[in-house]
Amino acid sequence: MESLANLESFARSAELGSFSAAARRLGLTPAAVSRNVAALEASLQLRLFHRSTRSLNLTEAGERFLLSIRDHLENLQGAIADIAHSGGEPAGVLKLSMGPTFGIGYILPMLPEFMLRYPLIRPEWMFENRQVDLIAEGYDATIGGGFELAQGIVARTLAPAHLIAVASQDYLRGRPLPASPADLSALDGIAMRSLRTGRIPQRLMRNAYGDEQAVSLKETIVVNDPAAMRAASLLGLGVSLIVKADALPHLESGKLIRLLPSWWVDAGPISIYYASRHLVPLKTRVFVDFVVEVFQRERYPERFAGSLG
């Protein structure tokens, strides 16, 4: 009878394409994963992988074996997880990635309540403006918007990511307010260059009637971070298109003014992403449910919507 560790090491190595990535996913060392796979090959008297210094590929026998065990292995892992969770508390390191502006503004303030509710979970939270590889980098979850949904990743929508046009009272003093998105081009613009593409994206504003208009801000100032865009607007340097969630505290304090209140850019949803719909660790499951609970309680979906004023 093959051990579960050997079968898991084989299946994850095949899925991720390397012993190192499988080791990060399983919480083992690459050497341990390699030994487990070698033990499985010795027991079956079959070579399951073609190995080289640069790649790890399944042999024909390895492909057949993976197909034959994959569903059974997931069912077995699910049964073990259910039994383990039925009498235990959520525990372990919860590794999370999120953007600094949104994460520090909205997710970090949830932490005291979360830790009080789940004292055995130890947060390890990274604040970074990039899309992480959840599986290869060993993250439990990530929060953000506009991410490509890779195979095996689940996205749960939290709220809309609507961009709105904002500027400070000082900047707007003595200037005529724009009446349509086209009028924004007459004002100083604070643009953001995408870290992923290196380009300044072109935006399309819409209203509740279904009208759409392209918007082109002057590139008076160009930055590469949404927090810098917001700070530049607060300093009175011009107009920026930023996520309403990032602008909200300053709109409520009066430091920023929303231009064109009936118009917004739909940048998709803000979501929480995690790996695997079936074998979600209990620590991850309770965190996802907790974040959804807080978003509903604080009415963030409504408050973040650019369509609601």
Tell me what the structure shows.
With 309 residues, this protein is an alpha/beta fold. The protein has three domains: 4-86, Winged helix-like DNA-binding domain superfamily/Winged helix DNA-binding domain (Arc Repressor Mutant, subunit A, Orthogonal Bundle), CATH 1.10.10.10; 97-159 and 268-308, 3-Layer(aba) Sandwich (D-Maltodextrin-Binding Protein, domain 2), CATH 3.40.190.10; 163-267, D-Maltodextrin-Binding Protein, domain 2. It has eleven helices and 13 strands. The chain has helices at residues 4-16, 19-26, 30-44, 60-86, 100-107, 111-117, 169-172, 226-234, 244-253, 282-297, 300-303, and strands spanning 49-51, 56-58, 92-98, 121-127, 141-145, 153-168, 189-192, 203-206, 212-215, 221-223, 239-243, 256-259, 264-275. Strands 3, 4, 5, 6, 7, 8, 9, 10, 11, 12 and 13 form an eleven-stranded mixed beta sheet that branches. Helix 1 (4-16) packs across helix 2 (19-26) and helix 1 crosses helix 3.
